[in-house]
Amino acid sequence: MLQQLTLTERNNLHENALWIIMDPWVNQSELLKYAIPGTVDILPGYNINDWNKIWADRIADYLPRVKNWLVITDLGYHDIVTKKEILSPIDPRFSHLPVIEHRYMKKDLICQHLPKDCTSIVYTGFHEHMCVLRRPYIGYNNINKENNINLDKYIALELTCHWPSPDLKIRLEKQSLRRRPDYKYIRVLDDIK
After folding, report:
1. Which is it for the CA torsion 94, 95, 98, 99, positive or negative?
2. Is residue 191 pLDDT above 60, yes or no?
3. Boundaries of every domain in the chain
């Protein structure tokens, strides 16, 4: 559900919250070749990299406003078929930020990256109803209960995108989740295009 924040509250998040960029890969279409068929279908005529770039551009423009950023992603993974390490580099605009890889995430690891006196976390990135909400130890649904912490959690509406599924019913269901009271969405851009 959309939360209305005052400018002071938003500025407080800029200064004191931990802001997560989830999975900002530069070439996600390359990774889709290794996915289970049928699990990552996208809208016909769309390229996942072009889709992601819309939000990556917004996040990159927003970087200077926020003090504490952390990237959560995997920079590669082991392909069990070819027995090779497949690299999955992130967008170079985020390469100067600290990174925790999903594959090394464990209980309480995120606590080492929380700023002093941090009481909030803000999620941005890719893709809202997959990794942003569900990732073990760090996703919106899991961070507090799996790390025994109690952060206020927010999702930056204009800096987080959903998966462009070709199934209209799935897209509408995911959009309707935004109205649930257990999810706190915030607007961070006053000048949304």
Report:
1. positive
2. no
3. 2-186
Amino acid identity for residue 35 in this structure: A
174: Cβ contacts below 8 Å, ≥ 6 apart: 128, 129, 162, 163, 165
Sorted by sequence, the CB contacts under 8 Å of residue 76 that are 6+ apart come out as: 85, 86, 87, 88
pTM as predicted: 0.91
- Cα dist. 191→11, 58, 59, 62, 158 in Å? 16, 11, 14, 12, 10
* Least reliable range by pLDDT among 20-24, 27-31, 167-171: 27-31
pLDDT at 35: 67
The CA angle 184-21-18, to the nearest 5 degrees, is: 65
Six token digits for residue 192: 């949304």
CA distances from 106 to 22, 48, 109 (A): 16, 29, 6
CB contact set of 138 (below 8 Å; sequence gap of 6+): 20, 72, 100, 102, 105, 110
Cα(193)–Cα(187) distance, integer angstroms: 13
pLDDT tens, residue by residue, 135-174: 999 999 999 999 999 999 999 999 999 888 888 888 888 8
What local confidence, expressed as pLDDT, does residue 124 receive? 97
The CATH number corresponding to 2-186 among 3.40.1710.10, 3.30.1490.20, 3.40.50.850, 3.30.750.210 equals 3.40.50.850
